[in-house]
Amino acid sequence: MRRTGHPVLRRDRFRYSPPCARLPRWWPGILLFALGGCIHAPAASDWTVEAQDPAARVEFTSDSIDIDTARGLTLWYGRRLAAPVRITFDATAVSAGGPNDQVSDLNAFWMATDPAAIDRSVLARPRDGRFEAYDMLTTYYVGIGGNRNTTTRMRRYTGRAGDRPLLPEHDRADPPALLQPNRWTRIALIADGNRIAVERDGRSLFTMTDPYPYRSGWFAIRTTQSHLRIRRLKISRP
């Protein structure tokens, strides 16, 4: 696992997995990755952390990723993904009395690229975890329970500083769109031609018809001043 911003306490306890050909289509208790019909548990070395807080913690266990941070943090998956793609994972906002257990900001980037970088890789130029540091990306973004769990929003970044258009239909504050403490929710991020979508627990959260869709890029989990757990990550075709 690559690190920027010098976050501390990285304990990688991801257990060994046999070659993907030997794995069943679903294996309880393991974080899953699927692409082209091959499922395996991704290693911590597949991820890059960008964190504002030197004390931020990202821990891989046998069945989840635990993210605990007092400030902005982005966890990039290291492989470039190509559309059509569907990224699904379970997530929960932990509320157990910890200093960062704020029940806020279950966020994600997908199909993200950096127009100024070689091969447009978001990993070519490390960032410090501040939210503003990602303004120059071209990417889709969703923020569930942002602004201290008062808003849920979807945006399409254009690669220009400060240009993160927010359409009225992509700005929600109704309780079903927000986070509930210690409750697992299933998220799906979709890029399928012109159709860009976010689903939650099998229901549509946001949809967008993009006439100029981003057809490849990187995926990341993003949060700030929060404590999240992620499990059952799966990347496949829609």
Characterization of this structure:
It is a single chain. The chain has 238 residues and is mainly beta. Helix content is 2%, strand content 46%. The chain contains one helix and 16 strands. It has one helix at residues 146-149, and strands at 2-4, 33-35, 38-40, 47-51, 57-60, 65-77, 81-82, 85-93, 106-113, 138-145, 151-158, 171-172, 185-192, 195-200, 203-209, 216-236. Strands 1, 4, 5, 6, 7, 8, 9, 10, 11, 12, 13, 14, 15 and 16 form a 14-stranded mixed sheet that branches. Strands 2-3 form a two-stranded antiparallel ribbon. A hairpin with a 2-residue loop joins β14 (195-200) and β15 (203-209). The radius of gyration is 17 Å and the shape is globular. The two termini are 28 Å apart. The relative contact order is 0.24. Residues 8-32 and 35-40 have low confidence and may be disordered.
Q: What's the count of strands?
A: 16
What is the radius of gyration computed over CA atoms, rounded to a whole number of angstroms? Answer: 17 Å
**Euclidean distance between termini CA atoms:** 28 Å
Largest sheet: 14 strands, mixed
**H/I helix tally:** 1
How big a fraction of the residues is strand? over 45%
User: Which percent range fits the helix content?
Assistant: under 10%
Order of helices and strands: EEEEEEEEEEHEEEEEE
Shape: globular
* Structure class: mainly beta
What number is the mean pLDDT? 86
Give the uncertain stretches in residue-range form.
Answer: 8-32, 35-40
